[in-house]
Amino acid sequence: MLVIGEITEQVPVVSLTTKSSDINLIFENNPDLEGILVSDLTPDIPAGLVMKGHFYQKISSKYGFDLFMGRPVHLVMDKNPLIVDYYESIITVSAQAMNRSQMNLYDYVVVVKEGVLHGIVSIKTLLIKLAEVQVNQAMFTNPLSGLPGNVLIDEKIIEYIQTESKSFTMLYLDLDHFKEYNDTYGFNKGDLLIKEVADLLTKYALVSEDSFVGHVGGDDFVAILPNHFYKQICESILNEFKMRIQSFYDVTDWEKQFVVTKDRNGVLGEIPLVSLSIAVVTNENHRFKTMEELSKVVADVKKQCKSSPDSCYVVYSESHDNWIEA
Questions:
Q1: Is the model's pLDDT at 240 over the cut of 80?
Q2: What is the pTM of this model?
Q3: In terms of residue numbers, what domain contains 75?
Q4: Are residues 199 and 302 in the same domain?
Q5: Are residues 99 and 154 in the same domain?
């Protein structure tokens, strides 16, 4: 994830006691400069922003030159510019910047790191980088669900594993008997069912900005929560899935609770209706060192989960005897 601090630029920084005449000289000597930062007491604490357009609009107004030119900059600066943290995502900052009033829409975004001034980001730079991020996301997004695919999933998992201080819960979801559903009802209905699961996962698992939902492919999905509060999320997903799945079957099949079709081995038989399995793995009591280690554990929990005839979730424990199934 590209953060706003990675695309900052440096511009002149002046103090609150700087006179507007000095601001005018800085702009005259730097024709391409669009804005100047104002600091409070030290160069490290942002106090305001002077954008060239706003500055000359005030200076050129009636009596503006006489009123402001020999006086401190705080009379002409924006005292409440958009200030964001270094580690905020470009997507989040773009939304904040575009939500400003029309008058301030093209002002610099001020970036701080641990409360200390780091630099600015121009709207031109921000929009260029946002477009690059969106193109990259589109390249690695599953076209059916619109969710991030394997490349972005792997990046997110590695990010959490490598940051020891981060709590996380990984949910691995897949549909049982989905192949037989496709064989019976066709790929169009199967695609709609995949989109339904994507919608459910997005609805309940994207609980914060740090949450992540991805589509591994086929009927497999991943969600990563930045905490260990998975119980209500799993229950909400499963409860709503049980309500929604009925609309994907004919009345006759729903009443029978099975379809007659060939299984994965080509044997004709009574195949149960589609159910949803959720394998739950957290780092609450175990630190995962590699993605391979985490993937192996997820596969084990997934196997346990799929042994249930109904939709359920199973929570990993290092002792198999303590695995929780619900």
A1: yes
A2: 0.64
A3: 4-131
A4: yes
A5: no
Q: How many residues does the chain have?
A: 326
What does the pLDDT look like over 33-62, one tens digit per residue? 999 999 987 768 899 999 999 999 989 888
Q: Domain check: are 217 and 86 in the same one? A: no
DSSP string over 204-273: HH--STT-EEEEEETTEEEEEESSS--HHHHHHHHHHHHHHGGGGS-HHHHHHTEEEEE-TTS-EEEEEP
* Statement to judge: residues 199 and 161 lie in one domain: yes
Query: d(Cα 37, Cα 66) in Å, to the nearest integer?
Result: 23
- Here the CATH number for the domain that contains residue 79 is 3.10.580.10
pLDDT over 60 at 221, yes or no = yes
Angle at Cα 17 formed by Cα 15 and Cα 23, nearest 5°?
70
**Tell me, what DSSP letter sits at residue 80?**
S
Task: Give the start-end residues of each E strand in the chain.
Answer: 13-15, 35-39, 46-51, 83-85, 109-113, 116-121, 169-176, 212-217, 220-225, 258-262, 268-272, 275-282, 312-315, 324-325
Q: Report if residue 138 sits inside a domain.
A: no
Each residue's pLDDT tens digit, 201-219? 999 998 887 899 999 999 9
214 and 97 together in one domain: no
